[in-house]
Write a structure and sequence with these properties.
mainly beta, Cathepsin D, subunit A, domain 1, 9-stranded mixed β-sheet, globular
Amino acid sequence: MTMQKQFIIIGAKDRIDFPEFGIYDIPCRIDTGALTSSIHCHRVKIKQGVDGKERLYFRLLDPKHPNYQKKDFVVENFTEKKIKSSNGQSEYRFVIQAKVILFGMEIITEFSLADRERMQFPVLLGRKLLNKRFLVDVSKNDLSYKYKQKYSNS
């Protein structure tokens, strides 16, 4: 008899925490059509430090967003990848590793830094994050957020 892995049910949309960046309860869309997750950012630029290492600077979210911090974040570990956007066009984007919290679990996954200003959700969760962890039930919403509310208040 083989053991079957239990998957967590996640809805079509939820809220996610990025503890390393100090931003919490950010609305996100679950997208099984996207391979890589993405997060809205702006002011993305590479700068070379005095040590000669390249660093990626960016600001997360949008100045109109209530969680916007008007703060530059800096990472040393980043790549540039060709990503197919929602309109079917391929574009190069910077990709970073970020720790997120869903259903009380810390997950480290890739996020492409994207201009999602015209999108309803600042964060998109793709298959790399979902794979072998979650099953999507599109009739549900905010299951991780409800889990957090239930267990952080007890």
